[in-house]
């Protein structure tokens, strides 16, 4: 005998009700957001306009921001809070991007826009993206700086943010320019313009009482220094080439090397430092191996030497880059060089197999040397626990969330894993429905949250139908893209 409609309804009600029950008291408590990334292209056609034949401009990354894919910027080191009970999320990210275009004779730009420290705030089913903005107004040239401007409204599509674990993530959420954002955007787009979709992933953890730190080792006579690390991203367009459609490769880190999104950290430096002479001779742990179609490159046994105001970074005894050091004396127990411009050496050009000629601008170098036990090295940009921005295929949504199309994967959201027993109950419920309604699948409940597709803005004179900025192909990565570094 087929199950009755009342039985099916009761089973579905029980299953959907279970989805809304908090997993436990610990999960309902407010959690701290620490670590994660936000991937956003701002507006890809704006990038194309800036780097195209009209604006003759470029963009540059600030504060450890990176790139991911062909036209997205990655902001890092999420910090804030998440309330699983109420579904509120407040996550602030580090890094920025500066767009410049329409160069003037005096070296300035008619178009000059900086977007930094983006913050996503979600509460009560509504979301917004805020950012620090500095812009030069179109036409008047007036420069305006504002902190945490509500730049874009986020269309969450009815998704319930309650009950999530860690990480909390969503992908391709439609974003729309607000009226405040339009003003801060220097008048290039009107309010209501569709911006690029927003993706983020943040790690959350239960609030913990601070624990006293262990006493740091003191500087020992003859030891040179206590600790050191060097941060270097090699070259942004090289990383994009490695992971792009031509090379179809990637990289692996070993020996303690760390990935900070836009750079790699080689830690545990040891060697000698002479404050009076301003010299350093240090070796670092870790290795980075890049592989792709028809090439493999390993950077290991990293060493840095500083003398006469110049630094040289070597791999396996071969000098790769040189960089200006400037002041090289301790301040509060730390000797630091921050984002020093770097140039490829002739030996480095050979290491890269002739991909770049000697003298090519490479990614900047940051160097930190702790000469006192109380000094702490700068924190590495934290992009979170996941490797990819794409979420796992185990989303949880409220039953009143917008129903998806079975042929689309746009706008997926996940808030943790569902218990195995609950998944079995869901499968049983849907099996019963299929048994009763073999001839039709219309109206079947779905557990995948769906965001509506963003609307295309009309009358956008600065838009380009195709994205042309942000070189990722091998033909574009030939050392001539200095405007993008």
Describe the protein.
- A hairpin with a 3-residue loop joins strand 3 and strand 4.
- The radius of gyration is 26 Å and the shape is globular.
- The protein is mainly beta and 485 residues long.
- Helix 1 (5-20) runs antiparallel to helix 7.
- The strands form three sheets. The protein has a ten-stranded antiparallel β-sheet with strand order 14-15-12-24-23-22-21-20-17-16. An eight-stranded antiparallel β-barrel has the order 1-4-5-7-8-9-10-11.
- It contains seven helices and 25 strands.
Average of the residue pLDDT scores? 76
Helix content: 10-25%
> What's the count of strands?
25
Shape: globular
Largest sheet: 10 strands, antiparallel
Please report which band the strand proportion falls in: under 5%, 5-15%, 15-25%, 25-35%, 35-45% or over 45%.
Answer: 35-45%
Low-confidence stretches: 5-27, 217-223, 387-485
Structural class: mainly beta
Radius of gyration: 26 Å
- First-last Cα distance: 70 Å
In the sheet with the most strands, the strands line up as: 14-15-12-24-23-22-21-20-17-16
Work out the helix count. Answer: 7
């Amino acid at each position: 005998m087929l199950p009755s409609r009342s039985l099916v309804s009761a089973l579905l009600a029980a299953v959907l009700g279970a989805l809304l029950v908090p997993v436990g008291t610990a999960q309902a408590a407010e959690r701290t957001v620490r670590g994660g990334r936000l991937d956003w292209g701002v507006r890809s056609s704006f990038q194309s306009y800036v780097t195209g034949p009209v604006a003759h401009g470029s963009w540059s990354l600030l504060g450890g921001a990176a790139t991911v894919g062909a036209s997205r910027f990655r902001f890092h080191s999420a910090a804030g809070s998440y309330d699983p009970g109420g579904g509120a999320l407040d996550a602030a990210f580090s890094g920025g991007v500066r767009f410049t275009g329409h160069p003037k004779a005096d070296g300035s730009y008619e178009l000059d826009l900086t977007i930094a420290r983006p913050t996503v705030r979600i509460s009560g089913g509504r979301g917004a993206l805020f950012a620090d903005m500095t812009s030069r107004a179109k036409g008047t040239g007036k420069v305006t700086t504002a902190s945490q401007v509500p730049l874009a409204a986020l269309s969450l599509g009815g998704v319930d943010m309650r009950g999530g674990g860690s990480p909390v993530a969503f992908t391709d959420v439609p974003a729309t320019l607000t009226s405040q954002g339009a003003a801060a955007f220097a008048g290039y787009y009107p309010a209501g313009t569709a911006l690029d979709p927003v993706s983020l992933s943040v790690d959350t953890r239960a609030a913990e009482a601070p624990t006293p730190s262990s006493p740091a080792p003191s500087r020992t006579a003859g030891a040179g220094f206590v600790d050191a690390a060097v941060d270097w991203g090699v070259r942004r367009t090289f990383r994009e080439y490695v992971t792009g459609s031509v090379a179809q490769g990637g990289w692996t880190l070993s020996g303690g090397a760390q990935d900070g999104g836009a750079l790699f950290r080689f830690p545990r430096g040891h060697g000698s430092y002479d404050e009076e002479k301003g010299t350093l001779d240090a070796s670092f742990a870790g290795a980075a191996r890049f592989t792709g179609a028809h090439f493999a490159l390993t950077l290991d046994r990293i060493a840095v030497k500083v003398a006469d105001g110049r630094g040289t970074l070597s791999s396996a005894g071969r000098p790769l880059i040189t960089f200006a050091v400037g002041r090289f004396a301790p301040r509060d127990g730390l000797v630091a060089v921050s984002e020093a411009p770097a140039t490829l050496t002739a030996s480095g050009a050979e290491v890269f197999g002739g991909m770049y000629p000697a003298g090519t601008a490479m990614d900047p170098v940051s160097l930190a040397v702790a000469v006192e036990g109380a000094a702490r090295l700068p924190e590495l940009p934290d992009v979170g626990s996941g490797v990819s921005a794409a979420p796992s295929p185990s989303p949880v949504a409220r039953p009143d969330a917008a129903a998806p199309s079975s042929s689309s994967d746009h706008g997926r959201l996940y808030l943790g894993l569902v218990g195995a027993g609950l998944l079995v109950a869901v499968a049983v419920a849907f099996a019963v429905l299929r048994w009763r309604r073999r001839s039709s699948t219309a109206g079947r409940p779905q557990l995948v949250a769906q965001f509506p597709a963003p609307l295309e803005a009309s009358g956008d004179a600065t838009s380009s139908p195709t994205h042309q900025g942000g070189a990722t192909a091998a033909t574009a990565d030939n050392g001539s893209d200095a405007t993008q570094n």
